[in-house]
Design brief:
This protein has 182 residues and is of the alpha+beta class. The chain is built from 7 helices and 4 strands; from the N terminus they run αααββααααββ. Strands 1-2 form a two-stranded antiparallel ribbon. Helix 5 crosses helix 6. The longest helix has 22 residues.
């Protein structure tokens, strides 16, 4: 394909790609970043284009993979290992800190049998088999206690906070109904 035609097609795609990303991501800066990243990847990989008549489809394929990469880079916030909220990495450090701190606080309110199992699994990073050995439990019992403990913490958090989500399930705000460790 002629370089001029390729460049014109990329310029046209630069106008269309933000709409593609906006339907999938609410944060405007992220939309702009993903658009630029996609265009840069397409420009760098132009030698790999096989079907010269399908440039648009090829660029949208790159956009889709760029979006998947973005979600993989996103940090899923876990409350004691249960994926509770998906927070974008950018701009949510304060919110993440509040959630993690709250999860630890709520964990302390659990009965010791669940608290110890969750603490060992999530905060010390032990495998379920190691948790079972440390607590003198069977593997099934250790798994059960860890899972039940995580669910208890999540339920406590949801009972005491009202979370606001965007269309993609990302938390955008919260309102505390009652404090945990007060």
């Amino acid at each position: 394909m002629d370089d001029d035609v390729f460049h014109r097609t990329l310029v046209e795609m630069a106008a269309c790609l933000p709409a593609y990303f906006r339907r999938r991501i609410s944060h405007l800066q992220t939309v702009e970043d993903l658009t630029q990243e996609t265009l840069l990847k397409a420009f760098r990989a132009r030698a790999c284009l096989r079907e010269q008549t399908r440039v648009e489809a090829w660029v949208y394929g790159i956009a889709r993979r760029t979006l998947v990469d973005h979600y993989r880079r996103q940090a899923a916030v876990t409350v004691n290992g249960v994926e509770f909220l998906h927070l974008p990495v950018n701009g949510c450090d304060n919110l993440r800190a509040v959630l993690v701190s709250s999860a630890r606080c709520y964990l302390e309110t659990l009965p010791r049998t669940y608290r110890d199992a969750v603490h060992l699994a999530e905060y010390e990073g032990l495998a379920h088999g190691e948790v079972a050995a440390r607590l003198g439990l069977s593997l099934a019992a250790a798994k059960s206690r860890v899972r039940r403990g995580k669910i208890m913490v999540r339920n406590l958090m949801e009972a005491r906070c009202r979370f606001e989500y965007d269309g993609l399930g990302n938390i955008i705000g919260y309102e505390v109904r009652s404090l945990c460790c007060s």
